[in-house]
Amino acid sequence: MNTENVQPQPPSGQLPTGPPTQLWTVDGYPIVDGKYLDLSTGEIKTHEGLLTGGPPALTVYWHNKLPKHQKEQPFYAASAFSLTSVTDYLTRVGDLLRTGICTVDSLSATKYSVNLVIMTQLSNNEFIEALGRHGLLHAGSSS
């Protein structure tokens, strides 16, 4: 699993401000009071290390269908989570698309998930910066 965009655990288990969200281990176990039940061993373990968001947070995946070789590493993929509604997130996607830096080949959205297959010639750093400028990486609530 690529953990490049997975977030480290907040200090003292504190969550970002915004609506309540459930944090998960990167291998799919919900974290409650800093602990999780490892179903493979039946053992309750204290969580340390990387974590990811999950319902009711929005899970987002970006994939570039058309990465080209260039001087800098092209953008291939990114995963993120957002504390916004799917409607607010898609509005932000629309703002990004209006800049012309990418086009959408496929978009799938549910209440808790957005998956985008895009085409862009930008480098990894350029596209990640653009996602950040438009509030599309680990976006907090706008209310």
Question: Quick recap of the structure?
Answer:
This protein is an alpha+beta fold and 143 residues long.
Features of the shown structure:
alpha+beta; four-stranded mixed sheet; three-stranded antiparallel sheet; disordered N terminus
Largest beta-sheet characterization: 4 strands, mixed
Shape descriptor reads: elongated
Helix amount, in percent?
A: 10-25%
Strand order of the largest sheet: 7-6-9-8
Number of domains: 2
Q: What's the total helix number?
A: 2
The span between the termini is 33 Å
Low-confidence stretches: 1-16
Radius of gyration: 16 Å
Biased composition (Pro residues): 8-19
Region (Disordered): 1-20
Describe this structure in words.
There is one protein chain. The strands form 3 sheets. This protein has a 4-stranded mixed β-sheet, with helices on one face. It has a 3-stranded antiparallel β-sheet with strand order 1-5-2, with no helix packed on it. 22% of the residues are buried. It has 143 residues and is of the alpha+beta class. 16% of the residues lie in helices and 33% in strands. It folds into 2 domains: 18-54, no CATH class; 58-133, no CATH class. The protein has helices at 86-98, 124-133; strands spanning 7-8, 22-25, 35-38, 43-46, 50-54, 58-64, 77-82, 103-110, 113-119. It contains 2 helices and 9 strands. The longest helix is centred in the middle third of the chain and has 13 residues, at 86-98. The chain starts with 6 loop residues before the first strand and ends in a 10-residue tail after the last helix. Residues 1-16 have low confidence and may be disordered.
